[in-house]
Amino acid sequence: MSGLETEPSRRFAGGRLLARWLLGAEWRSHPARAIVAIATIALGVALGYAVQLINSAAFNEFSAASKSLSGEADLQVRGAQPTFDENWYPRLATTPGVALASPVLDLDVTVPGQTAALKVLGIDVFRASRITPELIGVPSVQRPLDTLSDDAIFLSPAAQQWLHAAPGDHVAMLSGTSIIRFRVAGGLVRTRPGQRVAVMDIAAAQWRFGLVGKLSRIDLQLQRGVDRERFKRELQDRLGSQLVVAETRDDENRTDRLSRAYRINMNVLALVALFTGAFLVFSTQALAVVRRRAQFAMLRVLGYTRGQLLRQILMEGALLGVLGSMLGLAVGYALSSIALRFFGSDLGGGYFPGVQPHVSFEPVASALFLALGIGVSVLGSLVPALEAARARPAAALKAGSEEGALARLATPWPAVICLAVAAILALLPPLFDIPILGYLAVALLLIGGIALMPRCTAIVFTALSRWHAKRRTRAVTTLALARLANAPGQASIAMSGVLSSFALIVAMAIMVASFRVSVDEWLTHLLSADLYVRVAANGDTASLSPGEQMTIAATPGIGRAAFTRTSHLTLDPARPAVALLARDIDAADPGAAMQMTGPVLPPSALKDGETPIWVSEAMVDLYRYKLGQRLKLSIGTHGGTFVVAGVWRDYVRQTGAIQLRLADYRRLTGDTGATDAAVTVDRGASVEGVIASLRKLPFGAAMEFAEPGDIRARTLTIFDRSFAVTYLLEAVAIVIGLFGVAATFSAQTLARAREFGMLRHVGVTRHQVLAILAAEAGMLTALGIAVGFILGWAISLILVFVVNPQSFHWSMSMHIPWHVVSTVALVMLISSCATAVVAGRKAVSLDAVRAVKEDW
Amino acid sequence: MRHFSVTVEHCKPVSLTDDPIFMTLRNNGVPPALECRGLSKAYGAGRVLLASLDFSLDPGEFVAIMGDSGVGKSTLLNLIAGLDQADSGEVLIDGTSISSLDDNAATRLRRQKLGFVFQAFHVLPHLTLMQNVALPLLLNNTPPARALDLLEAVGLGGRGDDFPRQLSGGELQRVAIARALVHRPTLILADEPTGNLDPETAHEVLSLFRAEIKANGAAAIMVTHSMAAAASADRILILSEHGLHAGQPARSAGERQ
User: pTM value?
Assistant: First the structure.
């Protein structure tokens, strides 16, 4: 080289070639480590991407199906309660600005023998053909007037398939406790795949389902030039609180809100695997940097700049991320296709019934998960890369300087800051109804906890080492303790995998156990009767008349029958409807009927004419209801003043529920029907005998019976099923964590071949070397498990008391599943020791002479 | 501490050589390959390693530096290479002050002007011999073809695709010498290059080292404890707590020719 600058004419991209050589050399020399890191990233990305694709496909299909029911309507007028008086129809149809009004009776009809309801739309075919043309029945050529017939119903292909009914067949449905039959007159113009919907004439629907003079909604098309927003505002003012004016996009909002928390929690859970993978990439890269410390120093001496070195290590990490992410996207796509084909679309959550979504490539989600995979990988490489770039080449060239590479990890301040910020974030409210800050707090808690480990390891093992030195000791223990005390950085890297996976497992296990035990206690409290009778297992159309209720109450063997009327109340068109439960409640002791979460308002606190209501925790979160608050609700035709008399725990309806006394409900609405009954059996009478008597009643076939034990068992089965995916994702996190333990211990053990060679020279037997490794791994994992438990417990506090209430709007009490935690701890302890010994056998199998002689 | 037993000529100045060849170069305006001016370095609790060291090296000159362990020989090399910062004084490489450069500029100067040979060889184990030798070329954005020529020159022709694990210690040091010379540096810094080799191999390697640096016109500083190794240099300098002094001349001017 004659000059300082290279002449442009012979410019050669040596840097790029060198980067390729170095990368190729590293991957050639340690392919297994690169493969494990790539596989980990791929697994994390695949799970996250698959869950996202499944949820997104299901949500989009469900939204599209909901939207198709609204057709081309500009606005929809709905009742606050499920139905409202049809006299509103002519008034709205003649409102200036309205081009067309189409009345609809929208019912979720109970179908005998089916677990789900069938959506039946009663329409005025002449008007609906202009707003919802796709939902018009297609009659046969021979019977063109079937669209107006009172016994004809048109079924979508999915509904025909579900009910095993072809055109010409008859289908049975429940109205009250009576079974009514309809002739399948044909299909519909067009529906979405999997969409189960039936259409019939509106007058026939009103008559056959006992809802004469009632409508569910009126679809409006506005005249050209009418300002929709202004019209909507003015119309809402005119209609008052009995009716709500909604837009079709509100449907989407409702669907979104209904399932958002579930979808987000699933996504976050899926990302836990990726997060755990980030620690594996960190430990892989950190150890690779420590191992290559002298090589990097030599490159720096030869003229590699800090920037070049930093870029090289980050590029290596990014490449792991790119390959892992690309593989993950492909696997995720395949997984989601398989899951949708074989397991359905709701991943056990039950939020998207009756749709058949198909996975489609999502560019934004794909780019996001690609970026996440790469980002996680680069992030995992950042600390090691910075350290390598900062290292002083002259010092790093000397053998034995490895621990110095990790000295910075012992600085406790970043960890303390992470923990402090996590504590603050955990106290903040949700953003956009999502516990984003809670999740961020969990991530920071985990990062902070892990970052604190080098200091913690040094303190614990130095103290242990000193204590041990005062006793008559074995060489094996002394050597193991000495390394852990004097090389805490390397030890901590090995532990980060143990710590992160164990902490997450503990946190998830505590959260799920807390939830399950709380649900169990709630059920025990709730199910105080001997027998539960339900007439409308699903749908809105079945109910017990007052006469039928009296018959039940008078059945021999029944001491007491408490009836419940379940209905819905729309408080905000953009939110899902709130459940309205009318039942026998003692206002002086509401805790006997429901699990209260705080103080209750005594009846004496109510003024004349005020009606007490008891609201679920979701109402407090979503609608800001407070104890003692007085409010107006559109219950019945006249409404009235309602007072929040207490808040109760509800693990069923996360979108909110209101309970009021049955007598109050009947007084306000005039609706004397009942959907459920809680039966207390006379002393001496058997539950089986009572069921047999009830079945013999004329309407006995319309009723379903369940004993508390059955309901409890069924509920917990559904609970476990809905958490099945959680368990699966948790298991993946465990596997990745163990992968991390195995990879880290193997790398560290093999890197110490020279040390073991030296020990063999001075007389340490192979058996003793293995014992040292097992002791180190055992002590390290034990510390990792202890700290992981504390960290996991802290994370579970955030999950139980922040994330869950903010996601699902219910609270729970804390329960630690000791048997699960101790089993996992034992498995991790054993697998860590076994991994260290297996890796150690390979390291000590090297010739002792060669091991000490080898420079690299 | 092991006492060093080489005769030290305390009164003889070491800043400039009186060799006619170097005098001619100097008179022609060619700057020294290396010039150290008032170089000082202390460690920790005021332990002075190097104090006001003045020292220069002309192009093509091969100097051996000897001294007791811990006297600062490696520190001196680190200061010259810009890998460590002097407390005071200045190091000029080919007329450019490396001491005044920031880390990146010093690194660029190092990659262009300096070559290194280490006691522990420091060849990258998972690169081939050709790739190892070509490293300085790539760092200087130069095609790697010359690496094969250098391998040929150090007696490893045809083994460019071999990996370091297939080589003996002496062969590894030959690779290191090829790597140090491949980009035609101004100055080679060698830290105990024969410290890990047996006497016979050490002799071969030193002969090769000297021949190659002379063939490539590079100046070289070799830090060594070995008198035999030092004997291959043009001159010997002794580093002690009293400073840097000339030792017994290793070879006459005639031998250097």
Answer: 0.72
